[in-house]
Write a structure and sequence with these properties.
Distance between the termini: 69 Å
Largest sheet: 6 strands, mixed
CATH topology of the largest domain: Aminopeptidase
Keywords: Hydrolase, Metal-binding
Structural class: alpha+beta
Protein name: M20 peptidase
Strand order of the largest sheet: 1-2-6-3-7-17
Number of domains: 2
Shape: globular
Radius of gyration: 24 Å
Organism: Haloferax gibbonsii (strain ATCC 33959 / DSM 4427 / JCM 8863 / NBRC 102184 / NCIMB 2188 / Ma 2.38)
Number of helices: 12
GO molecular function, one term: hydrolase activity
Strand content: 15-25%
CATH architecture of the largest domain: 3-Layer(aba) Sandwich
Helix content: 25-40%
CATH class of the largest domain: Alpha Beta
C-alpha cells in the first residue's frame, strides 16, 4: 500500500489546529446583511502571507472584498477551492451557545461553523499542510473566498468573475452536502422561475360583493391553475440526467419520503411565497399581487416551462405577469473526472457511500458552471446551517481537510485515465451541461 502523502500526514498530526482555525473564522462577525467581511478578509490575507503565499483582493464594494490566493502545482491543471466568508444573521437570544464561537468536546458552535467557515478552515489547513511539508500539489491550488453569497449579491462571486475571472479545470465549493450520516457530492442545481403576478378587479362595499370583482379571487384562481398545470407535467431526461435523478431521489428519500423525493425532480415544484391584496375587511379588493417560486430539474428548458405558465395566465381575465426572473439548471457529468475524483476520495475518507446528486436549489456552483468551470459542492458538516446553535465537529473539519488535500492527486489521475466509475449505464460523457442563459423580464406595471 502506498504511504499517505506528507500533507495528509501533517493534517492528521495537527487535527486540533484545524478546529482552532475554524474557531478563529467563526469569531469574526460577518452577518449578511450588512455583510461586512473586511476584518475577516484581512485575517485571511495575513494567514496566507505568513505562509509566503501572495493574495489578491478583488472588490466592487470595499466592505465586501473577495480574496484569491494561488499555490503553484506540479502541472498546468488548476483546482479552485471556493468558499464564502459571510453568514446569515443570528439572534443571540435564540442561542444557548456563543454565536461567535464556543467549543464543547467534539463540537464547535457558532454562526457559520458548518456554513461554511468550517470548510474554509479546512481549505486553509490544506494550504498550510502543503507549505509546511515542502510538498507541491499535483495541480495548481487556487483558494477563492468570496463575500455576499448569502444574499446572492453582486459584490461577491459575480464581481470576482467579472473583474478577475477564475480560469480552472475544476472547482469544489465547500458547502455542507450531508444529511445526517448520508454524504454526497452535489453535481447539479435546479433551474428557477421567480414570478410576480398582479390582478386587478373592481372595488365594492363588502356588504354588496356582487357589485365588485374580487382581485384576490381572480389571482388565486390563476395560481391554482398554474399549480395544477405544472403538477400534471412530467419531465423527460437524457440518460445522464436520468441517472442523476435516480441517485438524487434515492439520496433524499429518507428525509422527504420516496415518492416526494422522486416527484421533486420528475416534475416542477411550485411555492406560493407571497399573496397580498386588500386593506379593509369591508371592501372588495381591486388589486392583488402574488409571488411564485418554480423550480425545474437540470437538463430541462426553463423557458419552455415559463411559456406554459404564460399560457395559463393568459386565460385569466385581469391577471398578468408583471415580472419574471428565470435561470436554467446546470450540472456536471455524474461520471466525469471531477465527480469521480471527489466521490472516490470522499468515500475513502468517510468509509461510506457518497451519493452524486442534485441540490434542490442553486447558488455559486451555477455561477461557476455558467462561467465555464466544472464545479461540484462537497463538505462534511451538520444539518444546523442557518439554525440557532449551529455547529460542526472536529471529525468533519478533519475529514474535509483530508478530502481537499487528496483531491489534486486524484483529480489529475481521473483526467489522465478517463476512468468512469458511476453506478449507472448509458451516461453520456459529453454535452451534459445544458445551454446556459438567464433572463429578467420587466413588464410595465
Amino acid at each position: 500500500m502506498p504511504s499517505d502523502p506528507p500533507a495528509v500526514v501533517y493534517l492528521r498530526e495537527h487535527r486540533e489546529d484545524i478546529v482552532d482555525l475554524a474557531a478563529a473564522l467563526v469569531g469574526h462577525d460577518t452577518q449578511n446583511p450588512p455583510g461586512d467581511t473586511r476584518e475577516l478578509a484581512s485575517w485571511v490575507e495575513s494567514f496566507f502571507s505568513e505562509l509566503g503565499i501572495d493574495t489578491e483582493r478583488v472588490a466592487s464594494n470595499p466592505t465586501k472584498p473577495n480574496i484569491v490566493a494561488t499555490l503553484p502545482g506540479a502541472t498546468d491543471r488548476t483546482l479552485v477551492l471556493l468558499g464564502h466568508l459571510d453568514t446569515v444573521p443570528f439572534e443571540p437570544g435564540e442561542w444557548t451557545r456563543d454565536p461567535l464561537g464556543e467549543r464543547e468536546g467534539n463540537r464547535l458552535y457558532g454562526r457559520g461553523a458548518t456554513d461554511m467557515k468550517g470548510e474554509i478552515a479546512a481549505m486553509l489547513a490544506v494550504a498550510k499542510a502543503y507549505v509546511e511539508t515542502g510538498t507541491v500539489p499535483a495541480t495548481n491550488l487556487v483558494f477563492a473566498f468570496v463575500s455576499d453569497e448569502e444574499i446572492a449579491g453582486e459584490a461577491g462571486l459575480p464581481t470576482l468573475l467579472d473583474r478577475r475571472g477564475l480560469s480552472a479545470d475544476a472547482c469544489v465549493i465547500g458547502e455542507t452536502t450531508c444529511e445526517g450520516h448520508r454524504h454526497s457530492v452535489t453535481v447539479a442545481d435546479r433551474g428557477s422561475i421567480w414570478l410576480e403576478l398582479e390582478a386587478t378587479g373592481t372595488a365594492a362595499h363588502g356588504s354588496r360583493p356582487m357589485l365588485g370583482e374580487n382581485a384576490i379571487h381572480r389571482l388565486y384562481r390563476a395560481v391554482s391553475d398554474i399549480e395544477s398545470a405544472l403538477g400534471d407535467r412530467r419531465f423527460e431526461f437524457d440518460p445522464a440526467v436520468r441517472a442523476l435523478v435516480e441517485e438524487s431521489a434515492e439520496y433524499y428519500a429518507p428525509r422527504f419520503g420516496a415518492d416526494a423525493a422522486r416527484e421533486l425532480f420528475e416534475r416542477p415544484s411550485v411555492n406560493l411565497g407571497v399573496l397580498s391584496g386588500g386593506d379593509r375587511v369591508n371592501v372588495v379588493p381591486a388589486a392583488a399581487r402574488a409571488k411564485l417560486d418554480i423550480r425545474v430539474t437540470a437538463g430541462v428548458d426553463t423557458e419552455t416551462i415559463l411559456d406554459g405558465v404564460r399560457e395559463v395566465v393568459a386565460g385569466h381575465e385581469g391577471v398578468e405577469i408583471v415580472d419574471a426572473d428565470w435561470s436554467v439548471g446546470t450540472f456536471e457529468d455524474p461520471d466525469g473526472p471531477l465527480a469521480n475524483a471527489v466521490g472516490s476520495v470522499a468515500e475513502g475518507v468517510t468509509g461510506g457511500r457518497v451519493y452524486r446528486r442534485s441540490a434542490t436549489g442553486g447558488g455559486d456552483a451555477k455561477r461557476m458552471r455558467n462561467a465555464g468551470v466544472p464545479t461540484v459542492e462537497f463538505g462534511l458538516g451538520t444539518e444546523t446551517a442557518h439554525a440557532a446553535d449551529e455547529f460542526t465537529t472536529a471529525g468533519a473539519l478533519a475529514g474535509n481537510a483530508e478530502v481537499y488535500a487528496r483531491l489534486p492527486d486524484e483529480l489529475l489521475r481521473q483526467f489522465d485515465s478517463g476512468t468512469r466509475t458511476f453506478d449507472s449505464t448509458d451516461v453520456s460523457p459529453a454535452g451534459t451541461t445544458p445551454s446556459r442563459r438567464g433572463r429578467r423580464e420587466n413588464n410595465s406595471r
